[in-house]
Amino acid sequence: MFVSQATSMSGLANRLDAGHTALAVTVDSTRAVGGWLRPGDRVNILVPSSCPEATLSSGVADGDVEVKCRRARYLYQAVAVLAVGAESGPVAADSGQVLPQPGAATLVLSLPPRAAQWVASYDNDLWFTLVHPQYQPRSHRAIATARGSTPR
């Protein structure tokens, strides 16, 4: 049996950017923009990172408590989402109300092979942020580690 060219060109492989590979990751909806991600979206991937000072000492009435210091950093930016669960095509704007997908989801991402290695090495300890379709990757300053500092 032969497969038509249109059918053979409709798979995910043909939607990969040149030189990229597809990687599937399972993530809960909280880490995946509340379940709002859809095929065709672009995301930034954040991962946890230890602070230079391994622990901070926090004064408490009954004594000191050691608190692990973790902060997020960007691992990769403007990553194309090829599929979310079994959904692999962009959702048409006129297809009705689009609702978030609660629970765990499998995201299929288009990544350069080296980036796929890094993403796979984080054992699903990943966070995703949705970015505008015209977003351009850029350098972001590291989060300040000074005690009591807050984002501005």
Number of domains: 1
Number of separate helices: 2
Name the structural class. Answer: mainly beta
Summed over residues and divided by their number, the pLDDT gives a mean of: 78
Low-pLDDT segments: none
Distance between the termini: 62 Å
Number of strands: 5
Main pleated sheet: 5 strands, antiparallel
Explain what this protein looks like in three dimensions.
The structure is a single chain. This protein is mainly beta and about 150 residues long. The chain starts with a helix and ends in a 21-residue tail after the last strand. The model has no long low-confidence stretch (mean pLDDT about 80). It is built from two helices and five strands; from the N terminus they run H-E-E-E-E-H-E. Strands 1-4-3-2-5 form a five-stranded antiparallel β-sheet, with helices on one face. The longest helix is centred in the last third of the chain and has 9 residues, at about 115-120. It has one domain.
Summary, kept brief:
The chain is mostly beta strands. It is 9% helix and 41% strand.
Output the keywords:
five-stranded antiparallel sheet; mainly beta; single chain; globular; 152 residues
SSE blueprint:
Elements: H1 5-8, E1 21-28, E2 42-60, E3 63-84, E4 104-111, H2 113-121, E5 127-131
Antiparallel strand pairs: 1-4, 2-3, 2-5, 3-4
